[in-house]
Amino acid sequence: MNANETLRGNNWWQKVLYFYVDGFKSMTVGRTLWAIIILKIIIFFLIVKLAFFPDFLNSVAGNDEEKADYVRHEMGVDRK
Amino acid sequence: MNELTTLVDWSRAQFALTAIYHWLFVPLTLGLGVIVAIMETLYYRTRDEKWLATTKFWMTLFGVNFAIGVATGIILEFEFGTNWSNYSWFVGDIFGAPLAIDGILAFFMESTFIAVMFFGWKKVSPKFHLASTWLTAIGASLSALWILVANAWMQYPTGCEFNPATMRNEMVSFWQVALSPMALSKFFHTVLSAWTLGGVFVVGVCAWMLLRKRNVEHCHRSLKVGAWVGVIGIVLTCITGDSSAVTVAKYQPMKLAAMEGLYQGSAKQSIVAAGIINPAKTATNDEKPYLFHISIPYGLSFLATHNPNALVPGIRDIIDGVSYDEDGNFVNTVSYAERMQKGKQLQELLAQYDVARRAGNQMAVDTLHKAINADFKYFGYGYLDTPEEAVPNVSLTFYTFHFMVTIGGYLVAFLLIALLLAYRPALLKDKLSCWWYWLCIITIPLTYLCSASGWIVAEVGRQPWTIQDLMPNKVAISDLSAGYVQLTFWIFAVLFTALLIADVSIICKQISKKSLTDLNKAE
Fold it and tell me: How far apart are CA B19 and CA B264, in angstroms?
């Protein structure tokens, strides 16, 4: 486990970049895992979130005051 | 009402499904993270290549579980915004602050150092690599801390003040929220139980390999670390479980009563070691609470207060306004009927506040604001139709609690034996070893069930509250159709089951593959 492979790159940003690039290139199991992670993120954020999980209050109220009024009404404590 | 009940039920079922699936991944990440860090520390100190191979083997399994589990918790946040929008608005920044800290600090810490952990073996110094492995494990626990702080606030809302103008709770003391007794007991109990699960996982996987007589030396090395972490984890889990029980007795006495199926409490209250709940028993009839039970005298009084003579109130007592003080003395509290009355008065005051605010009557606004905050702790009771509505599902709470305690007791014995056998493997005779190894394998799912049971006790036991005493579920949910929630429930059921299958199959593949290659090279 000696640090016998120096980090590529001339500056700090390049070293970080190549650290990840080299890391990803040398992966074996990790490739499958990253494929699963990317697929999962796409399903979660682009399909599930956009299609089924909108911000409910944003869909019924425009600003914070309207949201407070909406919740007040939903909780039955608005003007009677 | 039927439609609403169905919507509440489906919203709860959906949240429970996603939370339980999420929790299948989390404890192994927490437990295995610590175990991998200890193994790498042993490698760092000894520079023995065998420890390096062992570390890398478990690190791969840690990585698989981490990768499959990552972002499964984000679904819960989607649900807050869509299905629980009244709740999300009502909790305001109190829930947001811990989750933001989790996202910014803990998650990034974990994500940064996990890259060094996997990519940095030959790129960074051994010391830096070891530090990264420990920081990944610590980052995972810190991440859990902030989620548990948020959950603990729902169980025991503290450090906040309700603002009737915005209809939100506002944080007045971050430290009261972060260091509430509920948050601390929940954090330590949960994280330490994850160490137990990590230890059992290592013992079980090693047993699987030993059953096939593969990588024997590697397994014996791993077993020592796994069993030690497991033993330390389960002993500390029992200790923190005890402090959790005291905290629950103090802040959620109804949950404690449901955990025991206790309707009428008494001083010197016994605890049920094993029993069958009478399904006909309710808080309003005189049926016997148990069809069968074996009790330990003084047990519940001691568990709840550390005083064997203390009075522990039952469900009926609590509804009628009976409790005990810190010394275990019998005291009267506010009955649920009175709480409901106060809650309904608060609703009326809030309506008056709304009128005064819109009319610009500042004097009335100030007066009403003070009156609202004075009794706000009873606000949620105003939404109950009957006092009995505040009683959780007693059977489910009782059985999951007793299952958790029984398996917890079994795990103490199991892990102590595993530790003994890790140092004295010769004690296992051939025929006996086969049985023992299978027991080790079966103990993995048992520990997962035990862990999930703990969460069921914590969450079902506090029903009908989304926020204890302040907001019941039926008020917390969004005005959606039950069919819409059902649809997303089944989408998640399919998605998470697929992820679980992927997790288990990749881990199994790695266990089989690694046992034939890298480890043999090292040995």
Answer: 33
